[in-house]
Specification:
Elements lengths: L1 E2 L3 H13 L4 H8 L3 H9 L4 E2 H10 L12 H9 L18 H11 L1
Helix pairs in contact: 2-3
Length: 110
């Protein structure tokens, strides 16, 4: 199955390659295709097999997947938002509850 890739997907592939400091030639070696073909894919000037897109994405440590359209904004937010430390609890909206300080003090006294 050959397909024309949306510009958003092409940009994501190119940006991920650049962020990883990988040249088109290096990526071409990883996926066993000429640099010139990768350049055409990134420009959107060629139709590509879905299997080729998957191979390129996985070489860049990406996983292509289909998500329900109504979840696209949430997924974009998760991708684009800064990563929160995994050990810290998520920040509450508004102020911390007043009794949270008392509980921290009680734990530190013991």
């Amino acid at each position: 199955m050959r397909l024309s890739l949306p510009i958003d997907l092409l940009n994501r592939i190119r940006l991920q390659r650049l962020q990883r400091g990988i040249s088109q030639s290096e990526l071409g070696q990883l996926v066993k295709m000429p640099q010139s073909h990768l350049a055409r894919i990134e420009r959107g000037s060629t139709d590509v097999r879905l299997s080729t897109v998957t191979e390129i994405a996985r070489a860049l440590d990406l996983e292509p997947m289909l998500i329900p359209k109504h979840l696209v904004p949430a997924v974009r937010y998760m991708i684009e938002s800064p990563q929160q430390p995994s050990l810290a609890p998520p920040k509450l909206v508004g102020n911390e509850p007043e009794d949270i300080e008392d509980e921290h003090e009680r734990r530190n006294e013991h």
